[in-house]
Every structure is written in structure tokens, then in C-alpha cells.
Amino acid sequence: MLDLSIIIVNYKTPKLILDCLASVSTHTSGIAFEVIVVDNQSEDDSQAIVQAAFPAVRWFDMGYNSGFARANNYGIKQAKSRNVLLLNSDTLLTDNVLARCVRVLDEQPDVAAVSVLQRGADGQLRPNLYTTFGQMRRAFYILPAGAFFQNWLQRIMPDPQYTDKNQAEWLSGAFLMTRPATIARVGGLDESFFMYGEDVEWGYRLGKQGRMLLLQDASFIHLEYGSSDSNQQHIVTHINRFKPQIQVSQLLWVRKQYGIGAYLVLILHYVVMIPIVYVWKIAVNLRDRRLPWADLGNQHAFTKQVGIFLRFFWRTLVNQPGFYKV
To answer: Where is the Glycosyltransferase 2-like domain (predicted)?
Structure first.
């Protein structure tokens, strides 16, 4: 049996996949692996480009843009190996990290899944990546900057303390290795998610089967946003931290993992924040001797975003299975 099935979801990123697979080929040794590419209706010549360079790649077409969870689940079903790796197309390996992770799963049966640190295109470690559920939940709340509010959030949504420095609560789906046997027990990625949040929810279920390890002495390069120009264009502000699709998925995750109460608290928080952000900006304008209604674009964008994820309110509230795509 093969040691590893590498599953890559493609959406119009053949060049990224070529670079990714070149790095896999260059730096991977000591294990037998296959590569499965699942295409989300790219409607281009991605397959011809990739298989011309890597003819052994197994290529599957979803027939529509199924998002991250459904495409990866399909790839997992095609896997012929004793381990599977979810790997983004916009990633590069710099050493034999795949064999290292396979060895971890082989030698530590109490480990449910393993990943490694992310580096940017410049090779520097990417800071402030979430590894606990508390970190993710605290980021949802729009409160004044400062230690008081951050400490308050930390108290009501604390992080777990582990003796193993490598242990985390969840791992990024950009690089996540686990076993088909583990997936058989917990189920695949939740297919209600289109993109984002599905790896967090999956991490919760995977974590019930064993430890989740984020190896602190191993890494890969994550270029990020290879198939989405809109992500690159998104301007992050204090009140507009996430794109609408990310926000919808995150709210769905909170509802699934923490229940109706936690979900309603977040929804109420965002609705109440609409007049607050306007009043705050108008007050700042008056203080600075400007017109009260000047530069309210950020506030308008926040209101629009709240309106977008409120369209999913009832479906999310009752945890209705579906396709939560903005």
C-alpha cells in the first residue's frame, strides 16, 4: 500500500500546482505517494498543463465549483494510501516534511492529525495564525483595542494549556495529514461549508480521536490566495476583518460547535455594532472639524457585510444542511 495520498483542490491554478508538485518531487523521499487533483470546474486547460508535466497525477472533475470541503471529500474517497494529506495548490515544500509527518503518524498512534508551521513567500514564519478555537472566536468580536478588552475575552474564551509544545486544537486545511481510518470514524469535512471554517470544524471532530500536532521544527511555504484576486484586494480594517464568505462560514462553525446561544450572541453583537460604528465615526469627524458624514465607506461596508450573513441567519440557526456559499 502507498504511504500517502496528496489531495489538491484546483480552481484555475495550474501554474501553482506545477510549482507545488515540483517542490514535492524535489524534496520528498523515503515514502511512496500518489497525487490526486480534484478540479472545481476551472473550465480551462489546467488538466492538460498539469498532466503534461506530471502524467501520474490522478485527475477528477467535480463538474461544478464545489468548494473546499466537497472537493477534498471526493479526493479522500479516491485515495489508495494509508495516510492522506490535504495540500493547497499555493504551497511549496522546502524539505522532506511529508516523510516526517508520515513517520509521526506511524510512530504515534494517539495522534489524529499532523501539520507544520507556515512560512510566507519571503520565507519568514507567518505570525498570528490561529491554532486554538479560543483565538478564532475572540477574533470575531469587534471591541476597542487595548489590554482590558483582550484580557476579558481571554477569560471568557480561554485557550487550552498543553504540556507538548507541538499540540494544537486544530490545524489549517492548507496542510493537514491524517489517516483514512481516522476519517472513517469522525466523518469527512462538513459539506455545508463552501470555503473557510471547514477545517476548524473538522479539527474539533478529529481532536476527539487523538492529539492534533503542529510541529514547531518543520514548515512549508504558503503563498496564499493563489486562486482569488478578491482576497488580495480585500482591505482589512478593525471592523471589517473578514470577507463575507469567511464570516458566513465562521458563524456556521460557531453554531455547529458551540450551539444556538453562542451563535445568537455573535449575531446580536454585529447588529448592535452597526449604529455604534456610525456614531463613533461621526463623533471623530466632528472632533476633527469635518463634515459628520465624511468617509463612512468603512461603516457602509460593515453594514453591507452584516446584511450578507444575515441572509443565512435562519438556515444557520436551525443548522440546516445545505451549501453556505455567498
So the answer is: 5-132
